[in-house]
Each structure stands twice: as structure tokens, then as C-alpha cells.
Amino acid sequence: MNELIPDFDFQRVVVAPWASDFQGNIWVVLMGFFAITACGLVGQYLVLRRMALVGDAISHSVLPGIVIAFLLLKSRSSGAMFVGALFAAVLTTVLIEFIQKKSRVKQDAAIGIVFTSLFALGVIMVSLFTSQIDLDLDCVLHGEIVNVPLEFPFVQVAGLTLGPSSVVRMAAVSLITAVLVMGFYRQLLVSSFDPGLAGSLGVNASVVHYALMGWLSVVVVSCFDSVGAILVVAMLILPATTASMVTDRLPWALASVPLQALLSALGGFHLATWLNCAIAPAMVVASCGLFALAWIFGPVDGQWAKRRRRRANALPDAVLDPFLGKS
């Protein structure tokens, strides 16, 4: 075709990866599936609350927490990184709320202040202590999902091998996220649309808000080492916005997230194989492709559906002429 885009070979792109290394590639796809599912479920409520940028803030602000965890615990294990990143994520949420409530600064400005400051602090700390923590900043930003199959030994429970630790952890986070979304559906729904009504129904909107932000921190940190700080933001936003083009009912929007996650993970994996590029960004591009299709053909808010509704609501001149003639 040309030097930039290689020719598409179905055998090489679609068949060969599974025939040559099925066990390794399946963990990569599963990691992408679980990460997009967890992010997409939480992202539905972030988009409803117009708080999508909070995920951006948390994903960037975890860097200083990771550095501090390395310095204090002297460990590069995923557990140490998780603890440090989770602390920084919760701190980010608290600081945003504190600045917003104790000053005239609006939420979007408070988000910008907190995440840029903490992220810059993290970059400085990485530069100062690089020799001690051996931390790759590019890996922090973009993730290394391709290394998931190399995490040995695999997690074993009762003699049963479950898989790489990051995949098992992400699967557990996704399952817990789905259970929490279903179990607290009423509280999340009412507090997202009308906090005042939530209070009259006995739902404490503030508690729900902080609980949602706390779990968002867990989801972001769980995805962090595989998809990176930047790409997790797209996974929080894209499934929710895609679903809004297809349905106006929240239960159906939530149900569409696992399907979108599967298509994005598989599509991104094969796109990366075709173009010989990074897998996690390719999964986001695949998710963007789903959004583009929904934006054009979505039955609720797609451009094609809007055009059909405009045509149906417009009265033709042949109908108007008799009335205009009598005026």
C-alpha cells in the first residue's frame, strides 16, 4: 500500500497470533477486556455527573505516590506501587473537593490545579531519584500490557492456576465493580441526576460521591501498570459516550460496556498486530472506532437518526399550501 501503512494480511494479522502464541496473547486481550470493563462501568457515572476530567486528574496524579512508595518500601512490586498510587489518588480527590468548597475556584479549575501540580511533582521526583527507584516514565504514562504474560509465577489458588497477577487483580476489580454498580444502582442513579431528591429519599449524596471517587481511584490504579496513566482516561470516557449514542436508558448503557470492552480489546490487539504498534493505544483507537460508528449510526443520538427525525418532523410544502392559501 505505502510505507506508512502495511498491507493487510488476514493470515498474519488475525490467524497467526492465536496459532503461534495463544496462551500469551489471550492474557493480553483479557487484561484489556477487564480494564475497559471496569473503567467503562465507573465512567458511566462520571459522564452523567459531568466529572470525566476527575479520572484524568487521578490517572496523572498517582505518579508521586508511586515514587514515594518505592522510596519508603524499597520495592518495585505491584503491591507497593498499588498502595502508593491509591494513596495519591485518594489525596487527589480530597484536594479537588477541598479547593472547590473552600474557595471560589470552579471544579474544572480545581482539577487542573491539583493534577498538574501533583504530576509535575512526580516528574521532578522521578528525575531526582531515578538511580534509586529505576522507574521508567514512559512505562508509567503508556503502560506495558504486552508484558502481562511474562508475570511469573502465575497466581494459584487451591492448586488451580488462575493467571498473571495483574490479570487476576483486574478481573477481581471488574467483578466487584459490576456487583457494586448493580447493588447500589438506585443510590448512584438518584444522586447523579438530582442530589436534592436523593436527600429526600434518604440517600446521602455526599457519601455516594466520595465512595464513587474512592472506587474510581481503585479502578484507575488497578489499570495503571498495564494501560498507563494517559490511556486509562479514554477507557473511562469512551464506553460511556458511545453508549449514550445508542441508548437513553442507563441499564442498557451499563450492559453495553462488556460488549464494547470485548470488541475494543480484540480489535485493538489485531490492529496493533497489523500496524506493529503498541497494543494499549490500539485498543483505545478501536474504542474510538466504536464511538465513530455510534456517532454516525446510533439510533438515539447518532447523526443518521437525528437527520431522520428532522425529516419526519418537517411538514412538506404540499401539506402547508392549502392552509397558506386560506390565510
Structural features, described:
- By secondary structure, this protein is mainly α.
- The chain has one domain (10-310): ABC transporter involved in vitamin B12 uptake, BtuC (Orthogonal Bundle), CATH 1.10.3470.
- It has helices at 10-48, 52-73, 78-101, 107-128, 130-133, 137-142, 165-183, 185-193, 195-200, 205-246, 250-275, 279-297, 303-313, 317-326, and strands at 155-157, 160-163.
- A two-stranded antiparallel ribbon has the order 1-2.
- A hairpin with a 2-residue loop joins β1 and β2 (160-163).
- α3 (78-101) runs antiparallel to α4 and α10 packs across α12.
- The longest helix has 42 residues, at 205-246.
- It is globular and about 55 Å long.
- The termini are far apart.
- The mean pLDDT is 84.
State the main characteristics.
2 strands, 14 helices, two-stranded antiparallel sheet, single chain, about 325 residues, mainly alpha
Give the topology, please.
Elements lengths: L9 H39 L3 H22 L4 H24 L5 H22 L1 H4 L3 H6 L12 E3 L2 E4 L1 H19 L1 H9 L1 H6 L4 H42 L3 H26 L3 H19 L5 H11 L3 H10 L1
Antiparallel strand pairs: 1-2
Helix pairs in contact: 1-7, 1-10, 1-11, 2-3, 2-4, 2-10, 3-4, 3-10, 7-10, 8-10, 10-11, 10-12, 11-12
